Amino acid sequence: MIMENNFLTIKDLSVNYGETTILRNFNLSVEEGNIYCLVGPSGCGKSTLLKAICGIIKPVNGKILMKGQAICPAKQPIGYIPQQFGLLDWLTVKSNLFISKRIRKTSSLPEENHIIEQLEISPLLNRYPKELSGGQQQRVALARAWLLRPELLLMDEPFSSLDTFTTERSVELFLQLWKERRTTTLFVTHSLREAVQIGKYIVLLSKQPANVLEILERDFYQTEQQIYNRLQELWKE
Amino acid sequence: MEGMNIGIHVIASACRILEGLFIALLIAVPIGLLFADYPKINKICSPLLYFTYPVPKLALLPVVMLLLGIGEAAKITMIVLILVFQLIVSIRDAALHIPREDFHVLISLGANKRQMLRWITLPSILPETLTAIRVAIGTAASVLFFTETFGTDKGMGFYIVDSWMRLAYREMYTGILALSLLGFALFFSIDILEKKVCKWKNRESNHKKTK
To answer: In this structure, is residue A100 part of a structural domain?
Structure first.
């Protein structure tokens, strides 16, 4: 059931790419302060959904409300981490981190150094993105999003291009930071294991045009394995 | 005395090239970006661009002289004509090849068009623009040489031809050498400028070498 007084409400959202309908009458309600992991088949529209929320793609129909008002990235800070991290090659890491301050003309935050230290990117500040490893770029992208003090965090498969060890470390760092702020997060992943590890709610999407098949709440299950088994059953169906 | 004498001519030629380059950039950057941003305008105007681009600009010299006389304006205009077409095409193509994903994060931050231009478009097209300048400036210098053989008493073109006419071959060869050094200085300056404003390119290639 879609409740418009939820933190984020997506109602009857439809998005097309040319002739192809990616999302049709998509509905989702998101409560504040939780991580929602979106899982679904490749090409079902997970990334498109995030892009529609942060204004990169204009939907043909429907509405997206944040705290009851039409979502507006210029006014509401939304942290977006795309699949390839979205770092600007011609800016140093430091300039990339603070680009949001320049765009939105905001002032410094007291916890800037803390975030930079926590994500272990202090030694990287004067480097350029192409000089960084995938894991380092991912942490810089995460820091950039956090430094915005976002009300909503959108993460599009941020760990998909990383090796297992780097992913584990990145997930750990992300969750450490997240617990301090408890920012409402939509986290797209193709990994059921990652979804179970990170999300309080796991939103299972159908194939294109995507719709919500089921939302699993982690608290209803005693172990991660149970959730994982349930997800696999639903996936096979 | 001779050194100072030739110095005046080198400076005169250099100033003409730099003025022409400045004017060409003022024209080419907005037009190139306009063509990139508006496909319909690009579709209409590109054939005209391709039609006029291959025309040897020296062939336009009589027209330019007819309209602007034989003074400074004609000489600078010839430099502009050499540079502007190359720059428009390079800037347009560089802007068209900017990956759309580069804009996504700034869109999500609520950036306006001016901010997109400042933070994405202009830095993205900078390397290709400098390359286009590098490629075109050699031709610009040779056209300038030709235009300086009349209607002026300053410039390397005048100096070399005047020396030749007076059978002052030492001065003539000195002038040719000075013109080469001017060309070298221009190319070197563009390289230095590129190293300063496109630092990420140098660091990227150094990083690849050490991998």
So the answer is: no
- Give the model confidence (pLDDT) of B111-130 as tens digits: 999 999 999 999 999 999 99
What DSSP state is assigned to residue A131? G
Specify the number of domains making up chain A.
1
| A65 is a domain residue | yes
Q: What average pLDDT does the structure give for chain A?
A: 88
B 37-96: CB under 8 A from A: none
Query: CATH no. for residue A37?
Result: 3.40.50.300
pLDDT of residue A178: 92
**Residues of the domain holding A73:** 8-81+151-236
Q: What is the predicted ipTM? A: 0.86
Cβ-defined contact of A88 to B120 (cutoff 8 Å) = yes
CB-count exposure of residue A3 (10 Å: 0-12, 13-18, 19+):
exposed
Interface size, chain A vs chain B, as Cβ–Cβ contacts under 8 Å: 75
For residue range B162-191, what is the model confidence (pLDDT) as tens digits? Answer: 999 999 999 999 999 999 999 999 999 999
**Nearest-CB residue to A73 (from B109, B199, B207):** B109
Instruction: Indicate which CATH number applies to the domain containing B185.
Output: 1.10.3720.10
The alpha carbons of chain B give a radius of gyration, in whole angstroms, of 20
Strand partners, A65: A9, A70
